[in-house]
Structures are given as C-alpha cells and as structure tokens.
Amino acid sequence: MGCVFRREIAKRLSRVLAVPEDELVGLIAAVPVKKGRPKADFHLPVQELLERDIIASKAEPNAIVENIARQVTSDGNICVTSAPSSACLEFTIHRPLLAQTVLQRVLNDGVSYGLLHNHVPQKVVVEFSSPNIAKKFHAGHVRSTIIGRKCLCFFSSIFIIQKHIRLFDHGTEMCLQFATGKYTETVMISGLLGSAFQRFGSKKELEKNPLQHLFEVYVRINAETEREPSLMEDARKFSACLEMGEPSALALWEHFRALSLENYSQLYKRLGVRFDEYDGESQYRDAVHEVVSCLRDQGLLQISEQGTGVVDISPSQDMSSYATVTRSDGSSLYLTRDLAAAIDRMKRHQFDRMYYVTDHSQELHFQQVFLTLQRMGHSWANRCQHVQFGRVLGMKTRFGDVVFLEDVLDEARTRALHSMASTDTTKIMEDPEETAEHLGLAAIIIHDFHGDICRNYQFDWDRVLRRRGDTGVYLQYTHARLCSLEREQETQASTNFDPECLHEMPAIQLIQHLMSYDEALHKAWMELQPRSLVQYLLQLSRLVSVVHKQLPVKGSPPQVAQARKVLLCSARNVLASGLNLLGIRPVEKM
Questions:
Q1: CATH number, domain at 80?
Q2: 515 domain-assigned
Q3: Is the pLDDT score of 178 beyond 70?
Q4: pTM for this one?
Q5: 3-class DSSP state of 318
Q6: Does residue 99 lie in a domain region?
Q7: Which of 42, 90, 488, 523 is most buried, by the most CB atoms less than 10 A from its CB?
Q8: In angstroms, rounded to a whole number, what is the distance separating the alpha carbons of residues 350 and 344?
Q9: Chain CA centroid to CA 36, Å
C-alpha cells in the first residue's frame, strides 16, 4: 500500500534532485512502528543518496538533509521534515488521508493486498520434502516440507509454480532396504534379496502398517550389516540391477513405492501440501546414461585412480575441485541423477527459476550440480538455487527419541487440544480436533520460521504452544478474536467510515503497520526467508491487542465504532493473508 505514497514522495524529490523518480522509490521506506517513535510515516536516509551518487556533496549529512527538506514541496497531504539526529528526510501523511487510503485498499484488494504485482510472470519449479521410499517421514522432513510449502504459497501469489517432490527411491541405502525385504504378494525373492525379510518380515504387519514395519526391518538389517559387511556390497549390486532395469528388482521397487506414496499422501494432506509431480530418482535410469555419455562426448568425463568418473569443476581447470558422477562400476550417483532431473525439467517446463529446499549439509552437493551443469554448457544453471536450512535439535515426543513427522503432528494436535480444554475462554466449536490440528501446525511453523532458517535451533514444546509471546498460537488467537468481534457485530464492516475518527495513537500506529505490509513481503521474497513476515505478523497482533484494549468498539458512538470496526477488519484481513502465505490456515474460533 505504501507504494502509492512512496511514488508521490519520489515525484516531489525527483524535481529537487533532478533524477528519475524510479531511482528514488525503492529508497523510501516506512518508519517501523515502535513505542515512543516519531510520528513520521516514511523516511529516506541521506546516506542512501550519497552511496548511489544521486547527490554529490562534501557537506555534513545533517546539512544536506535540511537543505533538501527546505526545497521539497510540503502541503496539506504530505509534510516533509528533516531529522538531524538520524540524517534522514521524514515524510508524514495527513492522518485522515492515510487512514482512508490504506484501509480502503486493504478491504478492496482482499487477499491480493500487498502482493508484488509489478513482477514479470515467471515459471518457478520448487523441489522439497524429499522423503525416502519405504521409510517413514522423520523429523528432519518437517523443515523441508514447511519451508517448501511456504515457498509455494509465497511464489504462487506472484508466479506460475510447478511443485515437485523428490522421492529417494534409488541408490545404495534404498537398495539395502529393498535387497533385504520380502515382497508382500505371492512372490518370494530368492537369495540375499529376500533372506533378511524372511528372517524379520511379516506379511500381516506389512499390510497393517507398511512403513512402520519396513522401518523396523531397516533397523534390524542395519544391525546385521555390522556383523555381515557383505550385505553392503550386495546392496550396491542390487542398485546396479535396479538401474539396468532388472524385472524382479523393478517389481519390488514398484510395490514399496506404491505403499510409500499412499502413506505420504495422507501426511501431505494434513500439511495442506499438493504436488504437481512426484519425481523418483529411479525414473532417470535411462537419462543418467545420456548425461554420462554427454559428459564423455564433451571431453569432460575423466576417470580417477579409483576408477570413478569425475568432472573438473575448478575455476582454473586443475582438478582442485571436482564432482564425482559415476562409481567405479559405472553406476550413477545422487549427483548424476540430479543432473538428469534438472535437464529433464528444463526441457519439460522451461522454468525461469528452480529452487531446491534441503538442509545446509547439501550445500557442497548443489554447488557441484550447478557447476557441472554450467560446464556442460547449460547457461540456465544460474537460474537454480539451493534454499538451505539448519537442523531441528531436540524434537522429541513423549514416546522416545526417534521422531517421525506423523508423531510430531499428532503430538502438536494432542497438546493443543489439552491446552484448549484447560482454558476457560475456549469457544464451543463443531470440530475441536480440526481446530487443534491447525493450532498445532501453526505453532510448529511459527516456531520454525521465527529466526534465520539457515541456523540450527532447539525445539521446545512448551515454548511452541504458548498462548502468549511470539508463537503461532498467539497469532491464531488474535485472528480468532478478531473473527469473534465481527460475529458480535453481526455483519462485516463496510468500507464506509469517517477517517477523522481514527486519530488516536494506537489507531494511527496500526494503520502505519498495515501500510508497510508490502515491505515485509518484499523483504521475505528477496531474502527467501520467512522471518520478516513472521515478525511483521507478530507486531501486527501486538498492535491489534493495544487497539482492542484502548479503543473499544462496543459502547462507542456509532461513527467511531464503525471506523474502529473497519480498522480491525482490515487488520484481520492482513493477518489472514500473512498466515496463508506461511502455509497456515487461520482459525475462526478457539
């Protein structure tokens, strides 16, 4: 919303500074709302003008500010002043004009308020979540899934999104699981392929809870490999069989893949995630051979002393940095299959950007992928980006240390239900379990997004589910409280109101904060970090609480009550919009 005022301010400044207004718009920012802060709405540090050579002066910054302020036109709508203490130009909008413009735009624009409409339409591919076939989601998938979903919600408001899930259904670890499993239909795999599952497996248990049973088999076979290291070599051989398309290996893979996808779809439904495509590593069995052939034909493939296939990706071409693309037996690696997947997606989607959402331990891997693509002549490799995040520490349920995503979601729902039941102000609702599900998920997401996603953080259930403080429960409580106010007034506030009635400081500060919503979204977009949006919504909720306490609707004169209803309705719209962009469904009662 602030763009309307920024543009007018830039127009006035351009006349004085003799530069195009487009060069100035991005430098004018909303003044953050703080207790005891100045009453200005926008500011422009003179240092920004000096650093960009928009002005050239050896005078003191304070003198420059005062000189510009004297020359810029002030009128009844915009007042220009200098702030010597901070060497800033400050701009204050006429209060009724500010209230009328901001609140009407919020209500008229609805869910599109504050979004970045001036971007050129682009096609974006996002790969995230990336579970292993035949293994349950562990807690580590929480961050990839919710950060990936945040990217989807945020990008889909601007771009055309193609959502991919990467299924790790290939490679040595997967083949170790498959090579020691029992097929659940009538076929028994002979030799090592079925021996471990014959010892450990149960068709009944597999039908009852496929991924849990496969996990138990996986744990046991890992213990067996310590006593029988030859199992690892057998797993590698099976990996090669799978890559070559051996029928019995493929049949086993297809069956476990189907069981896994059925389980994953239920979890993704709880998270509100839907994928356009499920990309399994195994679907690139043929494509990886094409990649290796291409590297060989281009003279990029070299054979190391160990017999592995490598590509020199060092800047000086001296093998000081290289990517390994094949094992000594010629079979492909994770990196090779990523190369094949990226090339395939560009052919099919012609994307403008592609993001890979994984933890920071994969940083070197993706550097090698992107550099190898560049060496192959794919100039679009610079459109690919690794969105990395830190790990979650201490995420446990009351049942033990091994935490699966399903357990985390169940735990969050259970704890939220308990909190609702023990709170006197909890409203009567049709489906308390569904509300608890949304509260629990909001609590996890906000706890996760509150800081820098690139850092590891300590998970704490008590902090996650607090009603007060910087939590997802607090944001949901604020939204539900605003919905309750609208229900009490029977009808949603119309856009007709008298802006002169919103002259008190709490109302002005809330309007100023609503005006800066687009800046929070732009910052989140530029940084690929949700924290700026989370912090914006938490501050919004705090300002709403102050207005609710100090400027009551009930008992006020009709004109005043109407203006306050419009203000609070606008706040609810922006809060709901921000929650949805973070992948959180706002609740209306709690």
A1: 3.30.1360.70
A2: yes
A3: no
A4: 0.84
A5: coil
A6: no
A7: 42
A8: 10
A9: 33
Question: Among 35, 65, 93, which residue terminates a domain?
Answer: 93
CATH code of 457's domain: 1.10.730.10
Q: Which residues are catalytic?
A: 135, 138, 141
Residue that terminates a domain, selected from 59, 93, 127: 93
The domain tally of the chain equals 2
Residue labelled with tokens 């010629």:
330
Q: Answer yes or no: is 395 within a domain.
A: no
Residue 124 backbone phi and psi in degrees, to 5: -120, 135
Each residue's pLDDT tens digit, 536-585: 999 999 999 999 999 999 999 999 999 999 999 999 999 999 999 998 99
Starting at the edge strand found earlier in the chain, the sheet holding 160-167 runs 277-280, 160-167, 123-128, 353-359, 384-389
Q: Which amino acid is at 225?
A: T
Helix (H) or strand (E) run with residue 469 in it: none
CA distance 539 to 513: 8
The separation between CA 364 and the C-alpha centre of its own chain, rounded to angstroms, equals 21
**Cα–Cα separations (whole angstroms), residue 571 to 104, 143, 173, 341, 575:** 12, 28, 50, 43, 6
> Quick one: average pLDDT of 89-109?
94
Token pair of 204, please? Answer: 């009944």
Q: Are 61 and 44 in contact (CB under 8 A)?
A: no
As a whole number, mean pLDDT of residues 42-68 equals 90
DSSP assignments along 22-63, one per residue: HHHHTT-EEPPP-TT--S-SEEEEHHHHHHTTSS---S-HHH
pLDDT per position as a tens digit, 500-542: 999 999 999 999 999 999 999 989 888 889 999 999 999 999 9
As a whole number of angstroms, the distance between CA 570 and CA 558 comes to 18
Give the contacts of 98 (CB within 8 A, at least 6 positions apart): 5, 41, 499, 508, 511, 512, 515
C-alpha dihedral sign at 353, 358, 363, 366: negative
437 in a structural domain:
yes
Domain around 40:
2-93
CA 42/CA 510 separation, integer angstroms: 15
Q: Given the structure tokens 């609480």, which residue do they identify?
A: 545
Per-residue b or e along 520-552, where b marks 16 or more CB atoms closer than 10 Å to that residue's CB: bbbebbeebbbebbbbbbbbbbebbeebbeebe
Confidence category of residue 280, pLDDT binned at 50, 70, 90: low
